[in-house]
Amino acid sequence: MTVLRRAPRSRAARKEERTAWVFLLPWFVGMAGVTLGPMIASLYFSMTDYNLLSSPEWVGFENYSKMFDDPRLLKSLSVTFVYVAISVPLLLAVALALAMALNRGIRGLAFYRSVYYLPSLLGASVAVGILWRQVFGTDGLVNKFLALFGIHGPGWISNPDTALYSLVVLHVWSFGSSMVIFLAGLRQIPEQYYEAAALDGAGRWHQFRHVTVPLLTPIIFFNLVLQVINSFQSFTQAFIVSGGTGGPSDSTLFYSLYLYEEGFGHLRMGYASAMAWLLVVIVGALTAVNFYFSKRWVFYGDGK
User: 126-153: string of b/e by CB count within 10 Å (b at 16+)?
Assistant: First the structure.
């Protein structure tokens, strides 16, 4: 029986490997110190009574059991799920529509692409949150515009029935990153597919439905997963617009905002850590569900 032995590596190969590890070392240090370390500490704190001012006291799963009896936590979950369910499909639809418009070869494409991408950089900023309060306030620009037509608009961000939807509009406004990804995907679709569909008598709608969408499903899926994760982490918009309270009447109490309030407002860091891990489980479960059902509607062009 012949035993195959790995040929000894040359000195140059070993030197290249050591060089590679040296360049990777900062990433491993950052991963351990900024990601894994805080995660392990958070998991420990989630099982303690910890207020940042005194030593943590071990309480086991008490913080997790408290969640089921916390009406504000359940309210924050409800608000967040509604926000994600409405804002994510709207954002993807707007991003895809504008990407298709820009894909038609208009002049100054680079300029328009940059302009439309800008809201993605500013959407989660404090300045835009303050601007949004002015735009949707009782005397804001939206109501001033409606007044031109004799319509008396409500205080959009001070009304529990409309406050959340003003944040949905803000989230949809930050469509730029998804639009750029869609545009890159549209550029990869071969033109001959559209020519063949046109020869078969397919109009623009049928070309979009039977050519564009099937070939773009991997990009749609990618954007969907990213936007669901990002939407569950939304914080700044609700914090600024509601003044950090999640009001009015907890209508904008995002889960991340309530987590911040518990951890840094009431110094219940143990409970806040448990809430953070619940969020990890929720986002992980939704991502797994998306991947599971993607087998039924995502087309990769390789028969899978």
Answer: eebbebbbebbbeebebbeeeeeeeeeb
Phi and psi at residue 49, to the nearest 5°? -100, 105
Q: Please, what is the angle between helix 176-187 and helix 71-102, to 10°?
A: 40
Find the radius of gyration of the CA atoms of the chain.
25
Ranges 6-20, 189-203, 253-267: which has the least confidence: 6-20
pLDDT digits (tens, 9 = 90+) for 173-227: 888 889 889 988 998 898 899 889 898 888 889 999 999 999 999 999 999 999 9
pTM recorded for the entire structure: 0.87
CA pair distance 219, 226, nearest whole angstrom:
11
Give exposure, 236-264, as e/b (b: 16+ Cβ within 10 Å). bbbbbbbeeebbbebbbbbbbbbbbbbbe
- CA–CA distance from 111 to each of 118, 218, 286 (Å)? 11, 27, 36
Q: Which of 140, 172, 131 has the alpha carbon at shortest distance from 159? A: 140
If you ran DSSP here, which 8-state letter would residue 253 be given? -
Give residues with Cβ within 8 angstroms of 63, minimum separation 6.
Answer: 46, 47, 48, 49, 270, 271, 273, 274
